[in-house]
Amino acid sequence: MGTRTSTSIEETHQIAREVLEALQADDSIPGTGTIVALQGNLGAGKTVFVKGVAQTLGVIEEVTSPTFVIEKIYKLPEGGRWKQLVHIDAYRLEGEEELRAIDWGRVATDPGNLVMMEWPEQVGLGVPERAHWITFTVQDEHTRTIELPETLEANEA
Question: What is the pLDDT of residue 30?
Fold first, then answer.
């Protein structure tokens, strides 16, 4: 895994842009949704990262954590790899069976979906093996480390 350090929202957004470039180039499992599992404590930068992805993809709406609604779907501009960004906050879920409420089988397999799931550990085996796991760790008030899997290692700018 590659480890990156972020000391600002802007740096986290830059890492998100680089990860997005790697995701767009990844065609290892065609014909299915692209899933990114975002792991880390409260305040570790998961939602900030998703905001950076959304901004890069052209989402105009304000992106907020879907803690109480579980899932928010953002339509993406035409012509890109994905048709929609699906932002899931699984914090309040108690296992993979609760993913049925958001039609997870369809969401996870639709090749037009880029799925960003916060708190994936809450749903255990509900997260497919093909998911790209990114771990966020708080170092201090302003510093976060972001661990990327080899498949998404972004080059330091």
Answer: 72
148, 49 Cβ separation under 8 angstroms: no
Residue 46 lies in a domain: yes
Q: What share of the chain is helix, strand, coil (3-state, %, to 5)?
A: 35, 25, 40
Question: What pLDDT, on the 0 to 100 scale, is given for residue 153?
Answer: 63
**Distance from C-alpha of 95 to C-alpha of 26, rounded to nearest angstrom:** 29
Query: In this structure, what token pair is assigned to residue 87?
Result: 């932002």
Domain range enclosing 144 = 2-152
Per residue in 135-145, pLDDT (tens digit) is 999 999 999 99
Contact between 113 and 33 under an 8 Å Cβ cutoff? The reply is yes
Residues 134, 49 contacting (CB under 8 angstroms): yes
Q: What is the count of structural domains for the chain?
A: 1
157 found inside a domain: no
pLDDT of residue 155: 46
- The closest of 140, 150, 151 to 8, measured between CA atoms, is 140
Which residue bears the tokens 């900030």? 48
Q: Give the chain's residues under pLDDT 50.
A: 154-157
CATH of the domain at 76: 3.40.50.300
